[in-house]
Amino acid sequence: MSRILVINPVSTSRWDVSDYDYLQRYVKSSTQVKVVSLSEGPTSLESALSVAAAEPAILATVREYERQCDAIVLNCFADPGMRAAREISSVPVLGAAETSMLLACLLGERFSVICLDRQQSYKVRRQARVAGVSSKLASCRWVGMLPLELDSDRERFQDLLYTRATACVESDGAELVVLGCTGMAFAAGRLAGRVGFPVIEPMVATVKMAELIAGLRLTTSRRGLYSLTRLVG
Amino acid sequence: MTGGEGHLRSILTVIPVCGWTMTDELEEYLRGVADPDTRLTVVGLERGPESIECFADVTAAAPGILKVVREQGGAYDGILIGCFADPSVEAAREIVRIPVLGLAEPSIVAAALLGQMFAVVSVGKNAPAWGEIQVSALGIMPRLAASTGVEIPVGRLAEDPRATVNAIVDEARKCVEQRGAEVVVLGCSGMAPVAHLVRERLDVPVIEPLGASLKALEMLIDANLNHAQAGACLPSKAG
Predict the structure, then answer these.
(1) What CATH architecture applies to the domain A97-202?
(2) Bridge partner residues of A139 (DSSP)
(3) What's this model's pTM, rounded to 2 decimal places?
(4) Measured by CB atoms within 10 angstroms of the end CB, which terminus of chain A is less buried, N or C?
């Protein structure tokens, strides 16, 4: 049995229940998922400033729950506080971007990431470099909407997402696409049904990878980048 | 992606060798690792090399692997080719529409989630360069700290388990102490029976590729994910 803690790194619980229900469709029957959000901090993470503002509360949440779970998922494509969380947690911590892009390497020779806005596309390119997967990144395209706009105009988003995804494959040489925001989950099933190539939805991808890592009883290495730990107790 | 709830997965594992003394032991090991909801079939080759240790062995194993994939693959949700050389993995993906995994790619991806830099400890003098080829093909070369091998042939890994463990631990320690590796990937399915002993003696995460890759295949099936069919791996007309 694996217990996966999913942290929605925003100070609103509005997605906690729907994310939980969505994830139930994918996890093993022996896996327990718990979805929590932050008690304070920004309501969405679209800037470096908002990520910085969210990190203290993310780490507080990691400290609060890490003894009660076998793996932690940071449910945001910015991977906010991922490295710090690894330093303070005895269980593995997976970020949505790093995990999804590594998974994409398994499924094709070249992948694209579809972000929400132009600014995010630059951050994703940097994340790909740090993850070591740049040579497999065919392109970063963006929909041109803000995180909180997704819920209010879902139809428009679906259409834009389809147009971008198709362009990634037709024009940029990608074989598959990674959705660059965990808030796009609602659109993943329909997109995958409309296009003839794999679509990686980062929330499910990261939770399933966390399940895999926890199932193998593996955790973060303490012999290098994460050797200075701030483990409690 | 669509939901796969309540689904009993069926997985075909091909141990892509013929007459290897370890095949039964690896089958038992795989059964211990598989999820209770996985229906697992393990087969060897009717014809093929006794072990896969060089490129000529990979070539020699291909007809046997692809025969199994063609004749039996259609009845399963996923195929695992149980060798770290990932033999015939790409060709198999051209024949069937289900996920096909070897051992190297999933293990290396799992390692990259547990530290920034990892090492591959495989078998033979050709292991250092071969490991580099595999990691560069996967596309995450910047994260490879070291690639190395023990000097015990695959066919003799089971002969003296203590010597095997010692050799793996020695190589792995060098990778950690001198090359900065934070995670160690074992680069041969024949190391599976001793992986727990290696783990006891190292203070870094150790990825055992057979178990990790079986779990990764279960994951892909559950998440309803498959390889891209539009680019590198075209569907074969010869099917």
Answers:
(1) 3-Layer(aba) Sandwich (3.40)
(2) A112
(3) 0.90
(4) C
